[in-house]
Please model this.
Amino acid sequence: MIRLLPLLFVLLLAGAQAAPPKKAPAKAAAKPAAEAAPAAHASAAEEDKGKEINGVCAACHGEHGQGGKRGEYPRIAGQRAAYLKDQLKSFRARKRINIPMYPYTQERELPDEDIEAVSEYLAAIQLPTKWPEFKDTDDALTRLEAVEKVMIIPRAEGNIENGKTIYQKECHSCHGRDGRGRGKFPMLIGQYTNYLKKQADSYVKGERPHDEEGPVGILNKLSEKDIQDILAYLTAIQDPEK
Ligand code: HEC
Ligand code: HEC
Model:
């Protein structure tokens, strides 16, 4: 832990630099009628706020919530808002262990209204689902950035048929037949395989509670191969065109 502290500090600084400057309070004061503004304005303000908070998150999760470092930082764009809120509250309460995010989820850093705003902002981001077409003039950085933003992640190895059978029997009721989740249940498609694998491992070990049934849940009933096959299946159905 001690060894992690300097790293956290550097990340904190990086985060602080990535954050756009706070709006001048004078501007708000000049607009006393803001509260009576029509709903459209209120949601635009909400969106601005979400975007501003996301400036801090972008240091790890990417400017568009696309994730980073091949899944060390999960993709959070387009994830279900209710799920994002749940997880942020759970990090804040330290029910879900996430050391890199502790400095950002403390009560004073992330009050409920900020959780609300950033979650809605991230949930509304639609990452492209097609590979970009490049012009000859596009440089390497432009290409890399465009590719990282695409929702599609590489195919994971495994038996897709077996994965499908188990997924459509054991997982679809919460995560949806198409893997897009529903209500507060997270979307699983389009998420980095190694991140999902890490989560599955921590569910199996009882480090992170999965469903409502307590420490021994549905994933404990599956073999490691079955879980890998499900992950392979999830990468096979991520293309919304199919
Ligand atoms: C210092 C890097 C860092 C910063 C900054 C950061 N995160 Fe994270 N975040 C992580 C890591 C690492 C994980 C994955 C933890 C794990 O493996 O369980 C994560 C996980 C998450 C998850 C869970 C995703 C899922 O599918 O369950 C959400 C939601 C999230 N972050 C939102 C945010 C938001 C919103 C912000 C800004 C307020 C933020 N993060 C800032 C590193 C960061
Ligand atoms: C009864 C509902 C339910 C069923 C069935 C279910 N899950 Fe989940 N799943 C959840 C909930 C709730 C969460 C979020 C848990 C939390 O709050 O940390 C979750 C989270 C996950 C995550 C982590 C997602 C992330 O972004 O961190 C993975 C991976 C996952 N489930 C895989 C599966 C697989 C594979 C199956 C089938 C074998 C399955 N789940 C069946 C409810 C369910």
In short: The CA atoms of residues 26 and 32 lie 11 Å apart. The radius of gyration is 20 Å.
